[in-house]
C-alpha cells in the first residue's frame, strides 16, 4: 500500500511506550476476558459491559504509576503508517456519506497503546486485540497484535493486512453512526443465544463488507498483492479457522464473526461494488 506523504490526522492519539505498573495491572486478565466478549458480541455491547469493567477496576486497590520509554524507529514508522490508514478512512468515509446522503461522517479517534489502556468502555489489556469502543467512538490498538496475526493466526505479512483489520474496526464505527449496532443489541436482547450469535455474525460480516468498500475507494493507493494480504487476514480470523486451530473441531452454532469464506466473500463484495447499499448481511444471514 502506498502510504507515505499523508497529512497528520487530528484524531490519532499515541500512548505507546506508556505502561501502568501496580495492582491495577494484576486484574488485566479478567478485564481482557470482558473486552474479548465485547469483540465477540459486537461494538454496542461495550456499553453493556462498561459497568462490569468499571466494577472490576474499582475493586482493585493499590496505586499505579506510569512508566514511559522512547519509541523505536520501527514503532515510529508503524505509527506513521497507521496515521495514513486513518487519514484514508477519514477521506473515503466522508465521501461515501456525502454520496449516499447519510449526513455528516463523524470521524472516530484512534488510540495506540502498549500493554493496557483506559477507554470509554473500561480498562483493557493488549490481550483483547484491536477493538472499537462505541462509548467514546475510538479504536484501540496495541500494534504488537499485527505480529501475532502472522505468528499465531497464520496470516500473510504485509501492511495491507493491517489496513484491513483497521478498516474492519472503522466499519463498526460506521455501524454505530448508522444505528445498526444499537438495533443489533436490541434484537440480541430479544432472542436466544443462537439467534444472538447469528446477529453478531451478520454485524461482523457487514464490517468486513465496509472494509471492502473502503478499499474500493482507496484503489489509487493499492499495490499488487494488497488484496491478497487482506484476504489472507480475513481467512486467518474466520471462526472455523480459529476453532480448528484452538479446539481441533468446529461448532457453527457458536460462531460470532463468520467463517473464513464468509469473511472473504463480504470483503470482496464491498471491494468489487463499492456500494454501501449492497451490504445487507442481515437479510441474507439472519432468519
From TrEMBL:
InterPro entries: Uncharacterised_pept_Zn_put
Gene Ontology cellular component terms for the protein in this record: membrane
Topology versus the membrane: Single-pass membrane protein
Region Disordered, annotated ranges: 1-23
Keywords, in A-Z order: Membrane, Transmembrane, Transmembrane helix
Compositional bias per record (Basic and acidic residues), positions renumbered to this chain: 7-17
Compartment(s) of residence: Membrane
Protein name: Metalloprotease
